[in-house]
Design goal:
Layout (H helix, E strand, L loop, with lengths): L1 H15 L9 H16 L3 H11 L4 H13 L7 H13 L3 H13 L7 H13 L3 H13 L7 H13 L3 H9 L14
Helix pairs in contact: 2-3, 3-4, 4-5, 5-6, 6-7, 7-8, 8-9, 9-10
């Protein structure tokens, strides 16, 4: 269900490669990133964490992977606060998956009390970039009025976008929403 979708999205980011900075040799950074992915796929989390950490100052995807591993306690001690900080750095660099992860952490209160208002802009940025999990979570927030004004029409649009990306849980929530009101008739001009 939702967890499997989020997990496959995380693995897709691992496999997708990296967003190298111009500061380093992009080929060397890419090769290092790929070694980190291979270690992670082999479940050698200590090695994967070490490798990703070695390039996290130069590579947004490595930064996000370090955050993910800190969040889960893979290859390092679980540290939600450090994960949140690292996600923020990657999200500030423009990585939509990091913004979605950060928004989800804030929404769920993984590093402190839940903070839907703080989560909303991160999820909105990731949703605008086409991230289906962010679209779903933000849609749920608009449906419930959690941290944002209640707006069923906006919730419907976000759920539809997530459903169009293949998210079954978004289809389910979309189907459970009451029907959209018909558009208001046009006012005749005198």
């Amino acid at each position: 269900m939702f967890s499997r979708f989020a997990a496959s999205l995380c693995l897709a980011v691992f496999a997708a490669g990296c967003a190298s900075s111009a500061q380093d040799d992009p080929k060397a950074t890419q090769a290092t990133f790929e070694r980190g992915v291979a270690a992670y796929d082999a479940k050698d989390y200590d090695e994967a964490f070490r490798i990703f950490s070695s390039i996290d100052d130069h590579d947004l995807a490595a930064m996000r992977n370090v955050a993910l591993m800190l969040r889960k306690g893979e290859g390092t001690a679980k540290d939600p606060k450090a994960a949140q900080d690292m996600y923020a750095r990657a999200a500030d660099g423009g990585l939509a998956t990091a913004a979605a992860d950060l928004g989800e952490m804030l929404l769920n209160g993984e590093a402190g009390p839940p903070d839907a208002k703080a989560a909303a802009p991160w999820l909105a940025g990731a949703a605008a970039a086409g991230h289906p999990v962010a679209q779903f979570e933000l849609g749920r927030m608009f449906e419930e009025g959690n941290g944002v004004p209640k707006d069923p029409a906006r919730a419907r649009k976000l759920y539809q976008a997530a459903a169009d990306s293949g998210m079954d849980e978004a289809r389910t929530r979309l189907a459970a929403l009451p029907p959209a009101p018909p558009p208001a008739p046009a006012t005749p001009k005198p």
